[in-house]
């Protein structure tokens, strides 16, 4: 069986997995089997099945990232998880001291908005300028200084494709005793991620893109070494160490990442996303990555002379962010539209993603457009 049969694919070449990954067929079954059917058959008794589904989602994330399921907590999206985490960090000893959060200008805006809003709680934002390469460890070395309270590093940048060297950034953060949170929205499912090796403080991700799980099934991972220092403010009965204790005067945090869970949890997005995640695990992240690199390498071989800036695949995520002169970007985008391709453009960058369901024929079609237009 071809891997393409595992997904519902649009009728024309789909290069938008950095935006929304295609719906896995298993997701439709999983939504029915793990959410709708238990509800139909057993009403409120469905909770047992529903909670097992979320647990299975966390276990599957653990398999993907080499981590324990207890250290993951569902979150609607990255920015809400990041907000909760910042609010939960231990305060400085001086209550008035500013808490500087370092972020690269090429990070996804949602994460920068969080830090700006958190200025109300004495956080301060510091940017690494876009002119500084995020894949160069020297950049991080120069900007992570002793006055930095926390770093938000984006594993793969959505508009440049650049990969941040997370494990090395983590080492620098440790030297300066600052926290490190990582955004894996654009890398989960396509790049290798080993949380045991990274040893960062927190990780935020979603199922929307390479995990082919749709919106609403975000997640956070909290390093178990430091979880007990964190005191989330946005809580609910599922943040309690015993959600069914029902003792209003006695709130006690769960002793793992679930302290960030909150009130009555969402189930449907996780039942859906579980199908995508299991599909990715069945195929294997390494196989998807190898396929991506094969197609990207082939494509770049034939078009690199027409780009304003070369792409260095060594330091690139799953998406090719191709910088083109203004005169060519219009012609190429018209050529792609004529052939009904799914792609997008940010400023003078065309973004193209090759997932397991993309083929060599599709790459040949792209190459034709780039060479003819
Ligand atoms: C790198 C990166 N981070 C975060 C997000 C999404 O953030 P949120 O889940 O807060 O909407 C995206 C979405 O495109 C992204 O590319």
In short:
Helices cover 38% and strands 13% of the residues.
Overall description:
The protein is of the alpha/beta class and 373 residues long. The protein has 2 domains: 28-281, Type I PLP-dependent aspartate aminotransferase-like (Major domain) (Aspartate Aminotransferase, domain 2); 284-372, Alpha-Beta Complex (Aspartate Aminotransferase, domain 1). The protein has 11 helices and 10 strands. It has helices at residues 25-42, 46-65, 78-88, 109-117, 137-143, 166-175, 195-198, 268-283, 285-303, 326-338, 360-372, and strands at 72-75, 99-104, 123-128, 148-154, 179-183, 202-205, 218-222, 319-323, 344-346, 349-353. The protein has a 7-stranded mixed beta sheet, with helices on both faces. The chain has a 3-stranded antiparallel beta sheet with strand order 8-10-9, with no helix packed on it. The longest helix has 20 residues, at 46-65. The radius of gyration is 21 Å and the shape is globular. The relative contact order is 0.17. It binds pyridoxal-5'-phosphate (PLP). Pyridoxal-5'-phosphate binds next to helix 3.
The tally of domains stands at 2
Mean pLDDT: 96
Note the main sheet.
7 strands, mixed
- Would you identify the regions where 5 or more consecutive residues have pLDDT less than 50? none
With strands numbered from the N-terminus, the spatial order across the biggest sheet is 1-7-6-5-4-2-3
Helices and strands, in order, run as HHEHEHEHEHEHEEHHEHEEH
The helix fraction, in percent, is 25-40%
Computed over alpha carbons, the radius of gyration is 21 Å
Principal-axis shape equals globular
Distance between the termini: 36 Å
Strand content: 5-15%
> What is the CATH third-level topology name of the largest domain?
Aspartate Aminotransferase, domain 2
